[in-house]
Design goal:
The chain is of the alpha+beta class and 215 residues long. The chain contains six helices and ten strands, in the order ααββββαββααββββα. The chain starts with a helix and ends in a 9-residue tail after the last helix.
Length: 215
């Protein structure tokens, strides 16, 4: 056996070197994939504190790094088939003791942090006001007009400040006074076409006045 090894040492060296290179290449790819998964943006929109209109819309950052909340949009789907998309912004206090992301609806959301975006009743009512839906109607009448609604959160994430959208739809059962989250969960929007659309929404949010037209 030793004679065989001695006679074929150069060839065996090449084989061992090649196998070692393959093993380390595969190991490196596995480590890189694991690191990419760990750094992947993971944000969720959920419902807390009940199941009615007064329940709270929550944003949870389950990724390994902080994300920056840029804006919140509400899509209203009325019973007559129209859709309205409106930004929902919190009013800043004139002399606040401090500015937090939860207070103003913009800012950093740390890893493993959960942020209250506000009650669904307020989010829907604010979007409806901007869309001109509620008028002089009572709050209950407004909810009877809405068949479902979607919450879209636009964030900036990662070292390259990638714009990502997280959205989830909720159905409205006005007769039972319930808001039901879509069982499909939160959908992340990071494709190029989505990013262009999200950027347009952010630009529109900075424009003064105007309401969305039904689509």
């Amino acid at each position: 056996m030793w004679q065989f090894i001695s006679e074929h040492a150069p060839a065996l060296t090449v084989i061992v070197t090649g196998v070692t290179l393959i093993v380390w290449t595969v190991y490196g790819q596995i480590m890189s994939a694991n690191q990419s998964r760990q750094l992947q943006t993971r944000v969720f929109i959920t419902q807390g504190n009940g199941s009615g209109p007064d329940s709270t819309c929550l944003l949870s950052n389950m990724g390994k790094e902080f994300v920056f909340l840029r804006g919140v949009f509400v899509d209203l789907y009325s019973a007559d088939g129209n859709q309205y998309t409106e930004p929902v912004e919190k009013e800043w206090q004139e002399q606040p003791t401090s500015y937090t992301t939860e207070d103003i609806g913009q800012g950093p959301v740390e890893a493993s942090q959960q942020l209250a975006l506000g009650p669904f009743r307020w989010l829907v009512a604010e979007a409806a006001r901007k869309a001109g839906l509620n008028g002089n109607d009572s709050d209950n009448a407004l909810w009877e007009q809405i068949e479902s609604f979607g919450i879209t959160v636009i964030i900036t994430a990662g070292p390259y400040e990638q714009i990502i959208g997280a959205e989830r739809r909720f159905s409205v059962d006005a007769s039972n006074g319930e808001v039901r989250p879509d069982p499909k969960g939160t959908r992340l929007r990071a494709a190029r076409r989505d990013v262009r659309s999200l950027k347009r929404q952010l630009r529109a949010m900075t424009e003064a006045g105007g309401t969305s037209s039904p689509s």
